[in-house]
Design brief:
- This protein has one domain: Four Helix Bundle (Hemerythrin (Met), subunit A) (Up-down Bundle), CATH 1.20.120.
- Helices cover about 70% and strands about 0% of the residues.
- α1 packs antiparallel against α6.
- The radius of gyration is 21 Å and the shape is globular.
- The structure holds fe (ii) ion (2 copies).
- The site of one fe (ii) ion has 5 residues, from α4 and α5.
Length: about 230
C-alpha cells in the first residue's frame, strides 16, 4: 500500500528510486566521509573505539537531521546515507571488534551481552533489508526508518556503556583501529560484509546454561518415569 506523496513526484506514485539506489548513493556519501574521517577527524590516531564512537555520532546526527528534515528528497538522501553507514559499521564491529571483545572470555554475563549486541544487529539488518526493498512512497517507509533509528540509538547507548569499555580496558586499540580503516576502505569499494559467523555454541556451555537445561531435562525425565531426581 502506497502512502500519498506530498510532493507528487514520480508520476506513477513513486517519488524516488528504490532504497537500494539510495544505499549506493549513500555509500558514495560515506566514502567522502571516510576521507574526512581518516584525514581530519582523528589526525595521528587509529584508536578503534574513537572510530566506532565517531560512526555512532555520525549516524545519530543523520537520525536527528532526518527528524528535522521537512522535504522528502532530503529525508530519502539521509536514509540512504544512514543505511549505508549502518551496514558498514555493523560489518566492522562483527568482523573485527566483537570477536576481539568476545575473545576476552569475561564470563557468562559478558557472553550474553555480546549475543544481545549481535541480535540487535540482526534485527537492524532485517529492517535495513526491508527498507532497501521498498520505495520511498510506500506506507510505513518512514515509520520503519524511525523504528530502526530508535533501536540503533538504544544499541549505541548500550555499546558505549557496556561493550566498548571492555575493549578500552583490555585490547590493542591502535592495532584494531588500523584493521578498521583497511576494512572500511574495502567495504566502501563494494566488498560484501562477511557473515557475523561466530556462534557462542562453539565454546563449551557454561555451568549456568548446563544447569538450566539439565533441570529442564530432569523435569521431563521425572514426568516420563514418575520418579524424582
Ligand atoms: Fe553495534
Ligand atoms: Fe556500534
Amino acid at each position: 500500500m502506497k502512502r500519498n506523496s506530498p510532493t507528487g513526484k514520480g508520476g506513477n506514485g513513486k517519488r524516488g528510486g528504490s532504497s537500494k539506489d539510495m544505499i549506493t548513493k549513500g555509500l558514495e556519501a560515506v566514502a567522502e566521509t571516510v576521507g574526512r574521517f581518516t584525514a581530519k577527524t582523528f589526525p595521528g590516531t587509529t584508536n578503534a573505539v574513537d572510530m566506532l564512537k565517531a560512526d555512532h555520532a555520525q549516524v545519530k546526527q543523520l537520525f536527528d537531521d532526518f527528524e528535522a528534515a521537512d522535504d522528502d528528497q532530503a529525508k530519502e538522501r539521509l536514509i540512504g546515507t544512514a543505511l549505508a553507514e549502518l551496514t558498514i559499521h555493523a560489518a566492522l564491529e562483527e568482523e573485527i571488534i566483537y570477536p576481539a571483545i568476545r575473545a576476552l572470555d569475561d564470563g557468562e554475563e559478558h557472553e550474553e551481552k555480546m549475543d544481545e549486541a549481535l541480535e540487535e544487529h540482526h534485527a537492524a539488518k532485517l529492517l535495513i533489508a526491508e527498507l532497501a526493498s521498498m520505495t520511498s512512497d510506500e506506507e510505513r517507509y518512514y515509520a520503519k526508518f524511525k523504528v530502526l533509528a530508535e533501536s540503533v540509538r538504544h544499541h549505541i547507548e548500550e555499546e558505549e556503556n557496556e561493550v566498548l569499555p571492555k575493549a578500552e580496558e583490555s585490547l590493542d586499540l591502535e592495532e584494531l583501529g588500523g584493521r578498521i580503516v583497511s576494512r572500511k576502505a574495502e567495504l566502501l569499494k563494494g566488498e560484501q560484509p562477511r557473515s557475523s559467523g561466530r556462534s557462542r555454541r562453539s565454546r563449551p556451555r557454561n555451568s549456568q546454561t548446563r544447569s538450566r537445561r539439565g533441570s529442564q531435562a530432569a523435569k521431563r525425565s521425572s514426568h516420563a518415569t514418575g520418579s524424582r531426581r
